[in-house]
Amino acid sequence: MQIAQGTEPSITFRTIREVSHPNGRVVMMEVPPAPAGMPISVHGHYYARAGESLTSLGLDKQDEIRRQSLATDWSAGIVPGATLADFDSEALYQARRAFAQKYPSRFTLAEVESWPLVAFTDRARLTLSGEVTRAGLLLAGRAESAGKLMPHPAQLTWSLIGPERAYEHFSTPFLLSTTALWHRIRNVQLRLVRPGTLLQVEVSKYDERMVLEAIHNAIAHQDLSRMGRVLVQEYPDRLVITNEGGFFDGTPAEYVTGGRSPTRYRNAMLAQAMVELGMIDTLGYGIFDMHNRQAQRFLPLPDYDLSEPTQVKLTIHGAVVDEAYTNLLMSRTDLPLADVLALDGVQKGLPIPEKTTRRLRRAGLIEGRKPHLRVTSLVGGATVPKAIVKTRDNEERLIRMVIDHIAATGSATRKEINLLLESDLAEIADETQRMRKVANLLTKLRRDGLIINRGIKASPVWILAEPQS
User: How many domains does the chain have?
Assistant: First the structure.
């Protein structure tokens, strides 16, 4: 018990035997081998033997141990005692159809259905030379046969979180159970009003293809050696999909624009089988497609949380976060995905590069000062054109900013007004021109009887003028 409590991951002696010996009673304790790729700590420390001494296990040795698992594909292992009878008949039927759809120019459905079972499962990467792999049992195995994968739970879990609570576990075959899980998710219709009109646009809260892509990616890329389940948490306004294991090759941002393809896979056999059955692709387009589909539905883009090194959490939003963002996407369907990504960051209060900020500001897509940038509002159902931003409408907005600021603070000095308008005038490169712009603006407000100077000419203090009776 002390050994089990003091080790991480927890281990203990496999068997303890009592052996009779002429010199007395002998107790033999069998020490289990350490799991591949996982150094064992004792009370938070890693130890190694140096001759007859006990020393600390160096970081290089820890890394060497962890690399052991990189060359081991858990999903490619043969399941002891498993036979073709462990496959689910409905899953095999759907697998043959999916395989034929994957290669329509090479095989007809009738031809694929005529293949002997072992010939098909070998081609679909569910078996190796007729022997059932872990990948095959996960994707097409009967629920009753999932126990042969122990200690892996071989489960997907749906959890409803909010005013109502519920959960359900889904076992193998994953080829069918991912769709069954999808039908548990409450997918109502959202009604969005097009800006400048009374016309409503109906979009589903979640896109089926997008959600299944996310769940399939979580299955394919999870760290199966950690013996965890894929968790789908449904909140009132979002889905959070969690799988064990860090992001394996690169970062999500590198795949968003569709410019990177993975070069290696944590579960090569499982990934190949899922590709053959049309569940995922191996070119890295899945993340790009999810972002693109969400943008086309005018909703916030997916978020990846990699703060835990042993987990990946993907959030799919099912509600509007900022109406200005949604209105802008409905009015400007021509925006490139790179701009939509940046605007999504603005609506979520995330920092964006300075170069991107300048580009979006020049295009009239954002307004405000860092760190309080915001997606621009709409005028007449369309984004503010660049030419107008630089003239009349931009001036009216600056006037409103000055008036609102003075109303809120009671007064404002010239320095305070300069700081207030600094980011909105950033596109004017010349400092003298910026100062002249502010001076002209204040002169206009004074002549229009909106503000008065209670300071001196060299150091003005502006307050709102008393309304005329």
Answer: 3
For residue 412, list its beta bridge partners. Answer: 462
| Residues 59, 78 within the same domain | no
User: Residue 137's pLDDT is what?
Assistant: 97
**80/7 same-domain check:** no
Tokens 């820890």, located at residue: 62
**To the nearest 5 percent, what fractions of the chain are helix, strand and coil?**
40, 20, 40
Q: Same domain for 219 and 258?
A: yes
Among 64-78, 351-365, 412-426, where is mean pLDDT lowest? 64-78
CA distance 315 to 242: 9
Sequence-ordered list of residues with C-beta below 8 angstroms from that of 88, at least 6 positions apart, any chain: 140, 141, 142, 143, 172, 173, 176
Domain endpoint, select from 320, 348, 368: 320
Distance CA 194, CA 200 (A): 6
pLDDT at 180 over 90: yes
Burial class (CB in 10 A: 0-12, 13-18, 19+), 23: exposed
Cα–Cα dist 304/315, whole Å: 6
Residue-range definition of the domain harbouring residue 170: 73-320
Q: What is the DSSP string of 183-199?
A: TTS--PEEEEEPTTSS-
With contact defined as beta carbons under 8 Å apart, do 320 and 299 qualify?
Answer: yes
Which CATH number characterizes residue 422's domain? 1.10.10.10
Q: What is the pTM of this model?
A: 0.68
What's the per-residue H, E or C state across 267-284? CHHHHHHHHHCCCCCCCC
Cβ neighbors of 17 (< 8 A, separation 6 or more) are 27, 28, 29, 30
Give the pLDDT confidence of 305-323 residue by residue, as tens digits. Answer: 998 888 999 999 999 999 9
Q: CA-to-CA distance for 469 and 465, rounded, in angstroms?
A: 12
CA angle 326/332/336 to nearest 5° reads: 100
If one compares 193 and 204, the residue with the highest pLDDT of the two is: 204
Q: Is residue 363 helix, strand or coil? A: coil
Element (H, E) at 62: helix 59-66
- Residue 266 and residue 140 share a domain: yes
Q: Is the pLDDT of residue 217 over 80?
A: yes
Give 363's pLDDT tier (boundaries 50, 70, 90).
confident
Which residue from 247, 188, 249, 257 is spatially nearest to 218, judged by alpha carbons? 247
Q: Which of 48, 70, 92 is the last residue of a domain?
A: 70
Answer positive or negative: Cα dihedral of 148, 149, 150, 155. Answer: negative
Q: Which two tokens stand for residue 170?
A: 């889904």
Is position 229 within any domain? yes
